[in-house]
Amino acid sequence: MARVRIRQHVNPLSQKYRQVLACPDWATVYDDVRRPLHLDIGCARGRFPLKMAQQHPDWNFLGVEIRQPLVLEANETGDRLGLQNLHYLFGNINVEPEKFFSALPPTLQRVSIQFPDPWFKQRHNKRRVAQPELVTAIANALPPGGEVLLQSDVEPVAQDMRERFAENGNFSFTHDTPWLAENPLGVPTEREIACFNLHRPVYRCLLQLQRIP
User: Fold this and answer.
1) Is 136 a domain residue?
2) What is the pLDDT of residue 1?
3) Span between the terminal Cα atoms of the chain, in Å
4) pTM for the whole structure
5) pLDDT digits (tens, 9 = 90+) for 3-23
6) Which of 137, 141, 159 is nearest to 150 (CA)?
7) Confidence band, pLDDT 50/70/90 cuts, at residue 211
8) Does residue 176 have a known ligand-binding role?
9) Is 160 marked active-site?
10) CATH number at residue 70
11) Which of 25, 32, 117, 176 is an active site residue?
């Protein structure tokens, strides 16, 4: 299959991307919906969930991506490999996130947001993925002890995500240092591999839900 050429950035505030993510019947995409679920937000071509699904058959993995051709390509790859613990959805995670998370299997245990579009200009901050409404939806969906992994090679973006989750009040960091030196999941994204090869730093943190009263 030919590699699809896709725009690197799309405007999530465009009317084209303002529909709520449509969830399938989970029993039709996972052979066992009782397994713990890892949601990867902004999965791009889906290589990270793909590798995780291959290495951890006792988990289900769901990638969400706003560029539809990438989702079609990723699902074709997963189907071709016969992976019944992997699925991808097209859509904008920040459109009514509470509704989307309420439609997920009740086994959600981990969420990752890795190397999201930076949207450097101040007036474009509202286009960044880690919006307060999304953080709240994640906090409401995860059980106590559920994890959130955040990564970026752009320090202001990583700091912004870190602050958004810290401000929620339901999360605590699993480490005393500002950033983790190593990826705690052991499976790098394509961007992470590129940063390593270019000797560029990656800013990452891991949080756990405490559900503070």
Assistant:
1) yes
2) 44
3) 51
4) 0.91
5) 444 545 676 556 666 677 889
6) 159
7) confident
8) no
9) no
10) 3.40.50.150
11) 117
